[in-house]
Amino acid sequence: MRVLPTALGLALAFAGSVRAAEPVTIRVGWAVVPANLAPLLAVTPGVARHLGQSYALELTHFTGTPQQMTGFAAGEIDLGSFSYSTFSIAIENAGLTDARIVADILQDGAHGANSNEFMVLNDGPIRTIEDLSGKIFASIGGGGSSDIAMRVALRRHGLDDKTAVTFVEVGFPSMKSMLLSKKADIVTAVTPFSKDPELRQAAHTLFRQADAIGPTELLMMVGHGAFIAKNRAAVVDFLEDDLRAVRWYTDPANHDEAVAIVARFTKQPPERFQSWLFTKTGDQYRDPNGLPDIDGAEASIAMQHEFGFLKAPLDLKPYVDLSLVKEAASRL
């Protein structure tokens, strides 16, 4: 009679240990590849060493960072990519005090790297920012970093961003068609869409994001504090794999293979990426240790407040936890 309870107890203990070893599902939001590398982890050789072991990825695509903010607030994702501007708006308007900045994803115009472009037709009437009065601007969404850059540029050239230009929300892949069909007079052009030969033949850059607001922390990885605290080990493993991917993709020795992977994922010809992708000046900047420019982000947020896009200044320090990405980097 004693043997059965003992066997049953061992079986239950074994089942419990199996359940405990199951990978933690991390729901990650993303908008654009190759800016976001998380969607490429599973198809990149040798980088995702913890994927399927300590964590599993559930990827959700969003049009841009403003839309990710909404999904994050609704609890649809655990980690998302926020610009400095959407993060500050999330804290002020959505009250997301549980949000934590955990890593860098992408910086615009930093260290001599590429910057987002605002493009107009070659044969159109727009030659200066002042010419934008009465025109239509295709924006990724209110509060996005490119949206803020346009509004600041208008203000600095004597135009009221609330009345001088009509803002329409458009996804990045549709920007070219909006401009070429003349449904918009100026569009936001980000890589890889800004490198489209048809777009570049018909249009030119009126100004860059860095020209309007300087280098910016374009994308930061942000997580829910409660999720991070509960699943810290899995999140660190994910960040380790993500950093390994950053280093692999930005290594010139892997350039051709990296181009091939991105081309397959985006279903575009490799020639579209060959000359600029993951290069120091053609692409945007990725910190090899995953450390965001927090001082720069705070300066950009102070600019938001200065121009009236935020009601109050925001101190980022209570919302930053870089201990996870530092631990991840220390393993590499």
Would you write up a description of this structure?
Helices cover 37% and strands 18% of the residues. The model is unreliable at 1-8 and 10-19 (pLDDT under 50). α4 (145-156) links the parallel β6 and β7. It has helices spanning 3-20, 65-73, 84-94, 145-156, 175-180, 197-202, 209-213, 225-230, 232-249, 255-266, 294-306, 323-330; strands spanning 24-30, 55-61, 79-82, 99-108, 117-121, 136-139, 166-169, 186-189, 203-208, 216-224. The strands form three sheets. Strands 7-6-8-5-9 form a five-stranded mixed beta sheet. It has two domains: 22-111 and 216-330, Periplasmic binding protein-like II (D-Maltodextrin-Binding Protein, domain 2, 3-Layer(aba) Sandwich); 117-213, Periplasmic binding protein-like II (D-Maltodextrin-Binding Protein, domain 2). α2 packs parallel to α3 (84-94) and α9 packs across α12. The longest helix is centred in the N-terminal third of the chain and has 18 residues, at 3-20. It has twelve helices and ten strands. The chain is α/β, with parallel strands linked by helices.
